[in-house]
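Team,

Forwarding the record for the chain on the shared tracking sheet. I've put the sequence and predicted structure together so nobody has to dig through attachments.
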Amino acid sequence: MKAKVKSQRAKLKMQNAKCFLYLCLSVLICGSISVHAQNDGAEQNKTGRAGTFAIVGARIVTVSGATIENGTVVIKDGKIAAVGAGVAVPAGAEKIDGKGLSVFPGMIDASTNMGLAEITLGLAASVDLTEVGDMNADARAIKGIHPHSAHVNVTRVNGITTVLSAPTGGTISGQAAIINLNGSTPDEMAVIKDFGLVINFPSVAGGGGRGGGGGGRFGGPAIDFNQAVQRRDQAVEDLKKIFRNAEAYLRAKAAYARDKALPYPATDQKLEAMAPYIHGEKPIIFSAERERDIRAVAKFVGEMKVKGIIDGGQEAWKAADDLKKNNIPVVYTHIYSLPVREDDAYDYLFEAPSKMQAAGVKFCISTGNTGSEVRDLPYHAGIAGAFGLSKDDALKSVTLYAAEILGLGDKMGSIDVGKIANIVVADGNILESRTKIKYLFINGRLLPLTSRHTELFDSFKDRK
C-alpha cells in the first residue's frame, strides 16, 4: 500500500513538473512574440519630412495670447516663421487646409520615464530605470533612452511632442533628460541632455519616491511617528552631507587647478556630476508628496541655495507659502491616483491643480508614467479642467506652464514666431478624448500618424 502511494505521489510530481515546464515555455514564447510585436521597428523610425508648410484657414490657439479664429501658421526651417490672420503663404510652401481644424502647441509631459522602460512587468531586459546603489548623480537618462520604443509613437500621435525622461531608484537617481518624441538616436531627440538631478527626498512615511507610502493601512506595519520623523531627519542630514562632500571635492579640484603643488584630488565622477546642481546652475527635481515633506524640501532648497522642482506634489497647495518663498514649481502627477486617506473626498486629487492655481503656486500637470500611459496626458489636464481649473489654465498646464518650469518657455509651449515648430492640428479641443489629431509637427517635420496601435487597429478593423 505504501509503495502504491509513493508511486502515485511520484507520478503527480512528474505531472506537476511537466505542467510547470509547459507554462514556462508558453510564457517565454508569448513574451518573445509580445516583445517582437511591440518593438517591430517598421513604424518606430518614421521621422517624417522637413519643408516649408502653411496651415491655412485654421483656428489658432496660441496659448500665450488671444486665439485667432481664422489664421495661418507658417513653418520653416523647423521654427514657427509666421502666425496671424493676414499672413501670406510663402512661395513653394506646402499648404494644409485648416478649415474646421484647430492648431495647438504640442503638449509637454514633465515627468516620465519615456524610453527607459518598455515592458516593466515580465521583461527585465527592457527596463533601464535604476542603477545599483543609493547615490548615482552621474547616471544620465539620455544614455539609456531607446528612440525606437513603441511608447514613442503611441504617445506622440495623441499630441504629446516633448517629455522629460528621468531615472528612478535610490536617493539620488541621476540626471533627467528632455526629449522631443522624434529622432533616430537619443542625441537627435534631445532638447536638453542633462536637465535636472532627480532626488527621492526622504519622507516621514519612511522612504522617498512617488506616492508617499509607508506604514499603516496599505504600507505594512504602522511606524511610530516620532521614529519616522527621526529617520527622515537623519536621511536629510545624510543627503546634506553628500552635498557638502561634493562642495569640498570641487573646491579641492579648483585649488589644484590653481596650484599644482597641492595634492591631486582623486577623480570622483559622482561628485563631479553634482557641480551644476550644488551651484544652482541647474534644477534639482525632488520627489515629495505630503505637506510636511514638501516643506522639508523647501527648507533644504533654502539652506543649500539650490534650484528646486517638486515632482508629485499631492499636497503641494498646502505648502504654498514655502513654495512661493523659495520659487519652487510643482510638476503634479496625481490626477489618475486614488485619494490616500480614507476620509479624503473622491475629487481630492482632481482639485489640487486648481488649489495650487488659487494659491499662486507655479505648476504643470504630468502623468508621472513610465511610458505606456503618457499618451493620456491631455485627459489628465481635462479632468483638472472639470474640477476647478479654468479651461485656459488646463491647456497651459500641459503646454506653456510645463515649458516654463523646464526652462523652455522661450522655445516651446505656445504658438509664437521663432519658437520650435512642435505643433498639433486637431478637429477639436485636444484635451477631449473624442478629438482626433489630423497633423503633427515636431521640430518642423511633418510626421506620419502611425503607431503600433494604429497598425493593430488597421489589421483587425474589418474582421468579422
